[in-house]
Amino acid sequence: MSFVEYGDTIKDGDTAIVFLGHESMFPVKVQHGSVTQTKYGVIRHSTDLIGKKYGSKVTCSKGGWVFILHPTPELWTVNLPHRTQILYSTDISVITMMLELKPGSIVCESGTGSGSLSHALIRTVAPTGHLYTVEFHQQRAEKAREEFREHGVEHLVTVTNQDVCKNGFGVSDIADAVFLDIPSPWEAIGHAKSALKAEGGRICSFSPCIEQVQRTCLAMEEYGFTEINTLEILLRVYSVRTISLQIPDLGKAAEDNSSAGFDSSNPSDQGSPGTNLQQGTVQFKSGVPLREMVGHTGYLTFATKSLF
Amino acid sequence: MAVEGRLGPRICEGDCAVLKRGDVFKAVSVLRRRKITFEKQGFYLDNAIGHMYGTTFEVTSDGNLQPKREVEETTTETKEAGTDNRNIVDDGKSQKLTHDDIKALKDKGIKGQEIVQQLIENSTTFRDKTEFAQDKYIKKKKKKYEAVITIVKPSTRILSTMYYAREPGKINHLRYDTLAQMLTLGNVRAGNKMVVMETCAGLLLGAVMERMGGYGSIIQMYPGGGPVRAATSCFGFPKLFFNKLHEFPLSKVDSLLCGTLSTETLPSEPEDAALAEEEMNGLVDEKQTSVQGTEEESSAETAMEINQTEEQETMDINVEDAEFKENKERENKENVREKQRKQWERRKKLTEAAALLREKNADGLLVASKFHPTPLLLSLLEFVAPSRPFVVYCQYKEPLLECYTKLRERGGVVNLKLSETWLRSYQVLPDRSHPKLTMSGGGGYLLSGTTVVLDKGKSDSSNLEALKMEEPSSKRCKVQDLHC
Prior knowledge:
By secondary structure, chain A is α/β, with parallel strands linked by helices. Chain A contains nine helices and 14 strands.
């Protein structure tokens, strides 16, 4: 296993995802002799995990079962230990595409935070690219380094513990793209510009508040960035349900023998119209929006560093 | 100029490039002495050759391109502006220059910048407008008269925005942010072995190829006579990227899954005429059954100025050949040999793709087509290894509802999610920030999930359990759950 390469079987030292059902899962570090408790009972790593195929069904001690999944940056994002507020896959997707990232890209990021975006960036720029990530909080920087090591991607990332607004990214004229998720991104735009290659590159700044965006856009303009564009992406999730709606009794049933008056998608009703019309229902499948959705994560401001 | 040596790539003859004016893009091939029409302007790209990507050009009066250097804005003298528009009357006479005057200025070859200045000076109401209104006026005029074109390197970002704006019908209205979700949810990266089924002019394929950077392999499943790759060719990928790009006809998926695929038994020698003919007839049948789809796709292709795929050409010749074989036999002996060679190569590629699929260990499946997704998913998922992501795009939600239900019945999948993204753009200007007036009404829907080992023996009971586990609905869902 590695976060940048699929493996078929679960090995000692892997980070695996235990999937219990309906978006209920957690990460587990696979170790010989170790055990993991779930609501379905105990999983013994040596016998239940190591050597098994990723995607297998594993029966726990109480007879219940779980699936063991191969880690991906997306699964990690929903399972990682939060040290900060994190970016989710919806924003990450747009950031990755709009920054034009691909294998070989050099990216600068700040702050590292919990490493949710970092894992996705590393996945995309591997095997020849590199991520330079800057985190001013020493403990978080250290924790991120440790995670990258455990996940087999340390060769693709450099974590620097400094203040990006004061000291920049620690590299210059090297990056294809820069990403900022800090409280005052406008203070880092100058550093971002010098980190980017002379031939140009892309920048993105993530901010929850419009006032932050305004200051950032002004700074970007001041530093000669072009194509400045702010957007917001919202995810709508639908739950798939079979809905049945009752047919109202309009008193027609007794005299009118034909059910052609309404559109019933339940053909069995048509055999005996009238008699059981009062209890008659129409069934259909629907994608029902969740009762609550994320209405705002942050504004994404993109811009291009031009050639001249 | 000497400094530029160490900078990025230069525009070369034969390159695939993208022209950009404002937010409008157009993909072109860089060719000498070839007139390009873009945003109502005709010009030649000859002078752009040798310049760096990202250079901005002006169109000169003789239709050539001339690099534009950064000019410091000539700020209008002492700024004078009104506070409101209570005294501004729309009498249609505020602009003293007539249409003919403006045309005369243009014909004289006067620079756009100067025309804008003239328009401002000859507008009687300009000074009374508020500062913001003046700003807006200048921006509008600049857009019209100061035509500058930037030549940029193609990328998924640029091509997907371009296709969505110019020809959404050809990519099944797959909006660029939806495409972005597909690439992420599908964990597309270097080294993967991906199965892609698309009828998006090759845009999705191109996006996948970009993210894989030439590492790993892709098997493109195609309907009809051959894969459409009009958009793929706009990316200008190096040849190396195509080495591990395979294609396999959808119409042979069933026989591959049943183990009755004919190519397996075919000898690898190109000389075997009888078998070659059999294969040829097979192709003719295929053509007839799928003729509608193929026609639609090829007409879709022409508009993007890209030539048809080799496979399609070869096939057309084959059909013709079968019909007129007797008449043409003598003259065409050479041609026939050439065709046989191509056919043999084609069959060899088919055999390779079939072998890759037969391993049933693909690292992911992406589907974005005009076809009903359910049968595609139920069959193509067979080729995917356990614990791998899959993503299906559909312009409409309803087919994905059915697909969701059928996948649940089949089993072997977890983490099923039906989703849609909304994209909202903002105008950000001092004291004038707000969401843009219009936004896209729809960019399609995605059904995504992860494969798991399918235990066929007791699929019924496990399905029940899966339903019990996964169906619990939104009531329980907290805000945090929605993120994933």
